[in-house]
């Protein structure tokens, strides 16, 4: 349980909480004295929420630590990533709807191009298009290994996920991707003897995959990475009494949400408006909504300062659709910072806005940005405290002690 | 020991520390952009102290957690309430001067009204007046149970405290108050077999109480709640080297202070002036003074914004009496927030003012209020760090390491 003092305090309520995560929201100025991406963006709606609500800054993992997407989201959900580890193979699998049960072993797969010597000439099979990859995944599905079952699903372009199920499986296996070209894929190798049997099964599977892909000019080989099993996380329901839903375009974030027991909402489209429409449709069925906006991070990683600001402006413009639903608590933040100037995730604290008309204590800030958040009434605090704060402001916690 | 690194660093000193706690001090605005209770109050003395000293905000238990009075005070005194639990029966008993030793079992008692069928018709016996209740408590004192002794003391109106002393007593017993009318009081029921004998003794006591109260029209029954024993807390002397005194009008706060080894000062009157006079009289005998102001919380719970502000103004007006004593360190804060708009304790952080003319590092704030405290030089921090900060500013801590 992320906070073992919370369950005895939980109170039933009809209040609704929305956690709107703009991936990689935190930024940096690109000139001395200049604004960050968030400060540069025109965000009249968020600025109003900042006036009425309260700001702060959150540290995702620990000070100075740059988080990956999985741990950053776990932290926002209240699960200390130093305590709860989730393998990348599991994230990828659950993100495309593959179940990973206790004892199952999941891995991420890449199609790659092998030359005549069996050496890798392209680690991503020329970034093969999704339409070309899907029939190849269908061929992989036909592989059978005695004693176990395998389930394969396409992810995107050259990427797929594989889950193996059977007795006595163990995920303690090194990646088969050598991370370079001109050498052959590595064999699946157990890091401990308990995983020898599982590594052997995966090597059988890889050998058969080579056979069924042999006649394909680009994607004639595969590599597997991130072998992992179900982390068996306590659920949002058990931890917080919340019936939670997740709205995300990208599989990875659906995956991490489903690992904590959130219901992943199906919808079509990929704009903020589409996500908020999905929110409106799901509104009556849940207490808590996690909404994930990916493109802030993508633009940050592209080094596109203006593009990132534009994505933020797009979210701001769509925000009235969300506000029309009258949530009791709305939190707008990011999972981590992705400053365009750095073109990558960073360790900087993340702007945090909490709006709760009935219960937030306003500070004297009136815009949503890094500098304003540095003066916010919530101060600087760990991301992991987000959900307890949300529960409190939503009237979902009883008093501790008399 | 709350901070096991402190005792080796303690230095003797003649410096005096005053911790002035305005119960439920933190508040909320009642209109958009408006002041909180503390911000609305005219507090020229506290504002001057804010200019000369340093501000901050404290979180009592954990972020988002609304504290009860007992845990909130324990936290201010440096004892993590998640680690040190004190039963309500013990708090009530020590608050009226009943000793609760190791192995004793204390409970809170309520007089109640029973109808002819023995069902509760009023859980508080019509809020019977103190004058009426005292003779009934005298009757209860005459009850004898073989093998144990009991001590009873009146608290206020329909409330009393009872402590049972004897061999092999165990407090793991459920409340006998059914928390509703139209049903009889519950029997004292052990939650574990180790408490069966104690529950049986309390049931004998309750049966006799029914007999001695039978002819009273209103208070003809009793309920018992909060069975608990001495938590055996480390003392202020052992933990901090402080000879500490407590000045409070209300029993509960005397109680929690005495559990950490503070000497409770007897005095008459109940205004801030009366409390500060008691402080002046006790001044030479102690190093540390905890002064508790109750009415900020009471007015907050009444939903009386202006009344709460007036109580704060009254404390401010009386403050020169305290300042005349020239404490080396004065801290003014609350145990938790009780915003009038919420009419109850809340989880919001609490304004904190530290004044220490010889050693505080001033920030640039010049008034005492929630927004100013949000910009204070001490930042946001746990209540539990209050005493170490006080000791440091009082010159009572040696350097750690060479």
Describe this structure in words.
Two copies of one chain form a homodimer. In chain A, the strands form two sheets. An eight-stranded mixed beta sheet of chain A has the order 9-8-10-1-11-12-2-13, sandwiched between helices. In chain A, strands 3, 4, 5, 6 and 7 form a five-stranded antiparallel beta sheet that branches. Chain A has two domains: 7-84 and 233-393, 3-Layer(aba) Sandwich (Alkaline Phosphatase, subunit A); 90-228, Alpha-Beta Plaits (2-Layer Sandwich), CATH 3.30.70. Chain A contains 13 helices and 13 strands. The relative contact order of chain A is 0.25. The longest helix of chain A is centred in the C-terminal third of the chain and has 19 residues, at 305-323. Chain A has helices at 37-40, 44-52, 69-76, 88-95, 130-141, 196-213, 236-240, 251-259, 272-282, 295-301, 305-323, 370-374, 386-393; strands at 17-22, 54-59, 105-114, 120-122, 149-156, 159-165, 221-228, 244-248, 263-264, 288-293, 329-333, 350-355, 380-382. The first copy, chain A, starts with 16 loop residues before the first strand and ends in a 9-residue tail after the last helix. In chain A, a hairpin with a 2-residue loop joins strand 5 (149-156) and strand 6 (159-165). Chain A is an alpha/beta fold. The model of chain A has no long low-confidence stretch (mean pLDDT 96). In chain A, helix 10 runs antiparallel to helix 11. Chain A is globular.
């Amino acid at each position: 349980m992320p906070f073992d003092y919370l369950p005895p305090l939980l109170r039933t309520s009809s209040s609704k909480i929305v956690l709107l995560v703009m991936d990689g929201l935190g930024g940096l100025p690109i000139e001395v004295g200049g604004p960050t991406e968030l400060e540069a963006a025109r965000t009249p709606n968020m600025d109003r929420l900042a006036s009425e609500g309260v700001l702060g800054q959150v540290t995702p993992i620990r000070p100075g630590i740059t988080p990956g997407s999985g741990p950053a989201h776990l932290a926002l959900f209240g699960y200390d990533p130093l305590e709860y580890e989730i393998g990348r193979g599991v994230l990828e699998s659950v993100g495309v709807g593959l179940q990973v049960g206790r004892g199952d072993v999941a891995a991420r797969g890449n199609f790659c191009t092998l030359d005549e010597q069996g050496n890798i000439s392209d680690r991503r099979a020329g970034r093969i298009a999704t339409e070309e990859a899907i029939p190849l995944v269908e061929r992989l599905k036909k592989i059978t290994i005695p004693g176990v079952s395998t389930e394969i699903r396409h992810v995107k372009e050259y990427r797929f996920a594989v889950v193996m199920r059977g007795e006595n499986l163990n995920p303690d296996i090194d990646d088969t991707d050598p991370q370079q070209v001109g050498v052959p894929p590595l064999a699946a190798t157990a890091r401990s003897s308990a995983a020898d049997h599982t590594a052997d099964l995966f090597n059988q599977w890889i050998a058969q995959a080579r056979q069924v892909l042999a006649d394909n000019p680009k994607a004639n080989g595969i590599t597997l990475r991130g072998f992992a099993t179900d982390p068996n996380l306590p659920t949002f329901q058990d931890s917080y009494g919340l019936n939670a839903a997740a709205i995300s375009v990208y599989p990875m974030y659906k995956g991490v949400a489903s690992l904590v027991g959130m219901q992943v909402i199906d919808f079509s489209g990929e704009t903020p408006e589409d996500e908020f429409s999905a929110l409106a449709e799901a509104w009556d069925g849940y207490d808590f909504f996690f909404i994930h906006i990916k493109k802030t991070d993508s633009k940050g990683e592209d080094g596109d300062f203006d593009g990132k600001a534009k994505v933020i402006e797009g979210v701001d413009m769509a925000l009235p659709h969300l506000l029309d639903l009258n949530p009791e608590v709305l939190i707008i933040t990011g999972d981590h910072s992705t400053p365009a100037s750095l073109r990558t995730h960073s360790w900087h604290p993340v702007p945090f806005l909490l709006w709760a008309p009935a219960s937030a204590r306003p500070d004297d800030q009136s815009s949503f940005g890094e500098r304003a958040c540095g003066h916010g009434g919530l101060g600087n605090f760990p991301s992991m405290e987000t959900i307890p704060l949300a529960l409190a402001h939503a009237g979902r916690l009883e008093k501790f002690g008399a």
